[in-house]
Request: fold
Amino acid sequence: MAAITSFKEEMFVKMDTVVTEVDLFQADFRNMLERVSVAEGHVNKLQQEVEPLKKTVVDLRAATTRMEDHIEDVKGLSRRNNLHFRGFPERAERQSVEMFLEE
Reply:
């Protein structure tokens, strides 16, 4: 009978150890769940901040493209306005370049 009592007490000690370990695992698991929940909150917040930034980038790219096109147009106009013909007197065309060239 003493062996059974000793075995029973030993099993209770081991069970207490197992219960303590399970409690520790549960506490760690709850801690991890809380950390994951906080991380998910941060991710959601960042996603909400990123969406308007994506739209801003698209808008800025479109504006940059429009400005680059405008700059090219202005450069082209500037080049056309800066043509100099040698051998002709300045303002010899008077009213119309076409009429001057026909003469």
Summary: The mean pLDDT is 87. The helical segments are 2-81, 97-102.
